[in-house]
Write a structure and sequence with these properties.
The protein is 29% helix and 40% strand. By secondary structure, it is an alpha+beta fold.
Amino acid sequence: MEMWGIMGIGIRGGSIMTVSILVGMGLAWWFWRAPTPHQTWITEPLALGRIASHVTAGGTVSALVTVLVGSQVSGRIQTLTADFNSPVRKGQVLATMDPLLFEALATQAAANLSAAEANLAKAQAPAVEARRQALRLQELFDQQVVTQMDLDGALTDQLVTEAGVKVAEAGIRQAQAALQQARANLAYTTISSPIDGIVISRSVDVGQSVAATFSTPTLFTIAEDLRKMQVDTNVAESDVGRITNGMEATFRVDAWPDQTFTGSVRQVRNAPQVLQNVVTYDAVIDVANPDLRLKPGMTANVTFTTAEVVSVLRLPNAALRFRPPADLVAPAPTVAEVPGVRHRTVWVLRATRPVAVTVTLGITDGTATEILGGELAVGDQVILHLADAETPAPAARRIF
């Protein structure tokens, strides 16, 4: 009422300039007025601290080297000398199959080889005789005692018998190959460990028949050394560009929720993994497992530290999202976009008034963001939001 009274006096006095000044002052007061008694600025002071940028991913723990031991021949399991968690050495017998059929086949192949050798001796005798006959007829032909036809017949018999010798020699080689194959199949009835390690799984029992007709059945799974493990992670395609070889990674497993395991990235594989149109990449992490707490197949929740800074000005991310009502403050200045540089406007409470400040941002950890530039200092009260006076404020935050 007093303002309108003053305006009325100015009008009665005939001073148009006075009225304009008073109207401008009223508008300025309207835009810059303090919050109503029912509204409060909720702020937080800026402080120095550490900020680390992270990438999270799920993964699976597995042995560094895992070998599937199978059978190359079909048969019945006769003995088992290894079980779950059995330590094994390279060349150690894990199982044997019934060798009776394969022994018979090897004996038959050996007999076939003996028969082939006898056939060779049988073919060599006519060949020797045919060669002698051809030489005799050649001498008689030179003396003009026999005809050319007689000599040609002798030479033909020599060629035929020599071809028979070559056939017998080929039969020997075939028999030798069959014997070698039979002996190899007989050796395959003894299944040995190809590496030093520990048996993770066993898929057969004594008396079980194994068919290796179309594919090699897996009998044992052996891990080379469970003290050296790896984690295969599924990193989203939006984050894989931030993962590099040698980067440190930490993870937890459900079996040990209070323990954090540490490893390093050995390789980021280029092969994409597509599941329901979601593309991920395998980042392989090497992990030491001296106490054997990690077991193959465990699910790991992995965190990669992609960047880290210390003793920097921490800006709460809530301050970046805050925009004051237009009826309480003047519009914030427009910030020009610069490629590769993140500029944002935050509001700071100074002398009980909100002031817009342009800042340059660095890395973020999802809660706070690094301030690289801007007119801000330790202790400045950045505004997080505007709330009613009845709304309880969070702890360690200042209310105006």
